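quick one before i forget lol
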Amino acid sequence: MKRFLDFFRHSFSARLSLWVAVFATIIFLCSQLFASSIARKSVREEAIAGATRVLENTELRLTRILDDVETVADNIEWLVYRHLDSPDTLLEYTRVALQGNQNLLGCSISFEPYFFEGVEYFSAYSSNTDGVVTTEQEGSEDYQYFYLDWYLLPKILNQPCWTEPYADWDYDDDESLQTDMMVSYCKPLTSADGTFIGAISLDLSLKWLSENISRLKPYADSYCTLISRGGTYMVHPNPDKLFYKTVFTNSLLEPDQVMTDLGHSMQDWNEGFQEVMVDGVDSFVFYKPLKNTGWSLAIVCPEKSIFGAFDRLRRIVLALLILGMLLMFATCTRVIGRMVKPLSALTTEAGRIAAGDFEYRLPLEDRPDEIGALSRSFDNMQTSLVSYIEELKITTANRERIQGDLRVAHNIQMAMVPNVFPPFPDRNDLDIYASMTPAREVGGDLYDYFLNGDKLYFCIGDVSGKGIPASIVMAITRVIFRVYAKQDMSPAEIACHINDNLSEDNETMMFVTAFIGMIDLSTGSLDYCNCGHNRPVIVRASAAPAYFDCEANTVIGVCPGWQYKGQHVPDVRGRMLFLYTDGLSEAENNSHELFGEDRLLEVVTRNRGEGAKGMVKSMMEAVSAHVAGAEASDDMTMLCIKLRRV
C-alpha cells in the first residue's frame, strides 16, 4: 500500500491521469444516474400499465365465471316456481344444472320446514365429484341446512348474495372429512306475497377458481389473490394463508400501518395500487373490486420482478465503467509519462543546481511547447540566480555590519538609563523601579532619576519616531535634563531649557513628550511639569488610584521660548506614582485592540499593595497577556516611585 501511495506521490503522470479518470467518472456517473432515473421511471410506468391490464383481464375472466353462476341460478329459479308442486322434479333440476356447468361443485334447492306437507326437511342437492354427478335429499336431523350461511344469508338479506369461504364436509359413519373449500351463490325463493319459502345455492370450488385466475400474471414471481368482504384470503399461492388468515393477520402480530391501510382500502371496494412490503418483500399491489360480491381482486408484483432486469443492466454498465476507467487511467499514465519525460530529466538536472553546483549548465530543450519554454526559463533563472547570490552575499555582509552597529547602539542606550538593582540602598523611605523595552534595537523612550541632596529628580519621555534618530534625541534630552537638574532648578525651568536647546535648528521637527518631577524627600512635597505626556497614576492608601491633574503644556522641541507651567503637590509620602509612555496604553493584540487606560487603571488597582518592582512586573505581565505574541508597535517604558513614611 505504501509503495502504491509513493507511486502517486512521486509521479506527475499518475496523478494527472487519476484526475482525468476521476473527472470522466464523475461526468459519466452523473449522466448515468440521470438516464437511470428516467429509465427507472419509464419501467415503473410500464409495469403499472401492464399490471393494470392483467388485473382488468383477470377481473373480466372472474366476472364472466361469476356471471355464468348467477345465470344458472336465474334459470333454476324460473323452473322452481313452475314446479313447486313436484319435489322430485326439483332433484332433477339440480342434476341438470351441474351436468351443464362442470365448473360448479354443487347445487341445492332448499325449502322452509314443512313447506311440503308432512315434510320437515327438504333440500334437493346434487354434487359434482370428478365429473360424476350424484343427487340426494340432504335435509335431516343430522343436517339442519336452514341454520347454515348459504341458507340464512338470502333469507336475512332477501336478495341474492355470495357467501364467505367455507369447507365442504362429507359425513360417513359418524365421521367427517373435509373435501374442498368453496363459496356459494345464494338466491332467495319467495311466495306470491313475498314470504321467504327457500333458497337456491350454487357452490363454486375455490381451488378451481384459483387455478383459473392464477394463470394470468404480469411477471413470473407475481401472483393473484382474492379476499372476501371480511378480508379473508380466498385465493393465494401460499396454502397456509387460505381461508384461515386475513389481510390483517400479520399486522396484528407486527403493526404495519401501510398494510392495514391497504386492507381497509380493499374492503371499502376501492381501486388502485400501492407500494407495500408483503411478507418481507417490497412489492407493488394492484387491486380492484368484484361487482355484486363484496370481494376484492389483487395482483402482487415483487419490486425485484419489475426492476430485476433493469438493475442487472445497471450493474453491468457499472462494471464496464470501472473497467473503462482503469483502461483510461493506464493509457493516460503511459501517454502523459512519455510527454513529460523531458520534464523529469530537467527536474533531475535542476537538482544539481539545487545542491549548489551553480556552474553546471542545464541542457536546453529545443521544443516549441511549454516544456521547451520551461527549459529556457530555467536557463535564464540559473544565470539570474548566480548574479542574485553574489548580490545577496554583499547585502548580507552589509546587513550584518549594520546589525552589529545597532547592537552596540542598543547596549550604549541601555547603559544610559539608571540601574535599578538596588536604586538607593542607604534610604528606607524610597522604593523605585523602572523598565524600558524598545520596539526595535534602539528606541526613543527615556527615563532617568538621581538624588541631589534630599531631592529626587526624575523624568520619563517619548521621542517622536523610532530607531536611531529617536535614540539620538533621547540621549540629548537625558543629558540636558541632568545638566539643569543638578543646578537645582524646578521641573518647569528644566522643561524650558530642554525645549530651547532642542528647538534650535530642529529642521526635522522631532519632538519629545515628557513628565519631569522633583520630590523633596525630607518634606514629601512634589513639583512636576507635564509636557504633552501621558498623565501618571497616583495610588493613595485611602482612595482609588487616579490620574494626575496636569496643565496643558505643549511638547518639547517645537516651540522656542515656550513658558512651561509647573504644578505642586504638598505631600506624596505613603503614595505611589506610576509613570509610563504611550507604548503601554496603546499596546495592540492581533485583533488591533488597545490595552487602554481603563485596563491600565484596573491593573494598578489590583496590585496597589505591591512595591514599585512588583507593580512594574505585574503591568508587564498584563500587557504580555493582552498582546498574546503580537509584534510591538512602539517602545514601552514604565517608572514607578513609592515614597514611604519613616
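fyi The chain has four domains: 83-209, 210-306, 346-400, 417-643.
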